[in-house]
Each structure stands twice: as structure tokens, then as C-alpha cells.
Amino acid sequence: MTVTTSIGICADDFGLETGINEGILALVAQGRLSAVSCLAQGQYFSRDSAALASMDVDIGLHLNFTEALTGSDLSLPVPRLILQAYSHALSTARIRAQIDQQLDRFDALVGRSPDFVDGHEHVHQLPVIRDALLTALKHRYPKQAIWLRSTRPARLSHALPRAQRVKAHLIAALGAKALRSQAQQFGFQMNTDFVGVYDFSRPHPLYLKMLNDWLSQASTGTLLMSHPATGVDVADRYGVDRVAEYQVLSSDGFATLLGQLDLKITRLSSLNLAA
To answer: Which co-factor is required (predicted)?
Structure first.
């Protein structure tokens, strides 16, 4: 007897561009997403936050410390942020203030607390930031069951390019193990493992092929990260890949793949996940 596997699929960067918002809202309506991660400081977050809040989907904060968005007191290039985090040169007070500012804006515009929190470019797992984040969440939402994104890779098919597999493990090495340990101490749940990492700036297999390679290894609680859009700003560094992701995720081919792999797209907030 085949057992259906429940997975999460999250679209990142809601609020950044109109095409991103439109693509994400369409995919939620189609039942192709179970989670949406929001840049609360994004220029277009307020415009579409009410529409998103009315939908059956986990809505979370995409914590930002690398994009110069509205209200960003601290935004650094990723390598510099990593260096300062690991050398403990970041100001805990400034980090906590920016976390609270983003949570304040999220709560006000969505009308409720986040179902989950992750990080734009995975910054939520870095030293100093993860400490301040966990403390802030426990203080602000003491009775709220919030889950956190783990970047721990799932079993990665060797059909995927080696560079992709290496990148996934490098991202996890920046703090996945420490975040999981601290999340357990604070009582937060996490996705079991993580897929969806690839390099937008380099040639890569077709997105549907990568989805097959990622999801063929999925287990209950696996989270797939995505970045779909119906269209993008010409300066968007992810460019055509966002549109390609939207086209595939909305396609009959993706529905067929889910059926072939016996996968069910599920809100992770509804699962009993381990920390």
C-alpha cells in the first residue's frame, strides 16, 4: 500500500515585486503552495498583504538583513554579514531592533502573527541573528506554535549537478545544526529537511527535472523553497528563473509529478514536526 508523503512548498520574496506577488497569489489559489515567505519591508507588501492573509496558506516572515528595503537600518552584502556574524561584530541591539521592526510590520499588515520565520538568503541561521530571533519570537508570541526553516539538506539525488549539492551543504554549514539545537531548546518546530537550492547565475537543468530529482527523495516534513513570479523587474538578478519556476509549478506536468511521487502539498503548521 502506497503512503502519501506530506511536504511543504514555500514561495519566497512576497512583497518585493508585483510579478512576484501575482505569481505567488495565483499558485496559492491553485493549491501549489503551502507557505509564503514575506519581505515585510518590501515595496509591494502592503498592497497585497490583505489578499494573502485571506488564503489557506502558512504565511511567514522572510527576515531581511541583506536588501536595502524600506526601514532597513542594517543591510550588508551576504559575505560581509556572514563574516560579521561569525566574528560577533554585529550589534545585538541593532539586530533585535530590526527583527522587531519587521515583525511589527508583518503583524500589522497581515493581521496576525507569523506561522513561521525564515531568512532572506538564509540569514536567520547565522550567529547573533539566530539568538536575537529566537529570543524575540519567544517574547512576542509565547503561546504561538511558530515553525522555523531548517536548511538541513534532504538526501540529494546524484542526478543533480555536483555544484548544486555542494551549495546546499555549504548553506546548511552556516548554521543549520546550531539553529536546530537552539530551536529545540526554545520549543520551536522545524521542517524535517530542505530542497530547492540551485545557482541562478549558472547553467542548470530544467526546473521540472530538478523538481523530480529533489522531490523523489522527499519525506514527510520536507520543505521545497521556490522563487516564482509571473514577470520580473529587468534588474532582478534571478530574472528568467523566477518566471520559469512559476510556469512549471502552475503546470499540469508538476501536478503529474506530484501524483507519480505520491506527494501531498501540506501546510507544515498542521504537522507534528520535530525540532
So the answer is: Mg(2+)
pLDDT in tens, 39-86: 999 999 999 999 999 999 999 999 999 999 988 889 999 999 999 999
Q: How far apart are CA 265 and CA 34, in angstroms?
A: 6
Q: Per the structure block, which three cell numbers stand in for 132?
A: 536575537
Q: Quick check: is 100 in a domain?
A: yes
Report the CATH number that the domain containing residue 188 is assigned in CATH: 3.20.20.370
Residue 208 domain flag: yes
275 falls within a domain:
no
What the block records as the C-alpha cell of 92 is 545585538
Alpha-carbon distance 183 to 195, whole Å? 20
What whole-number distance in Å separates Cα of residue 207 and Cα of residue 141?
37
The list of the chain residues with pLDDT below 70 reads 1-3, 234, 236-237, 274-275
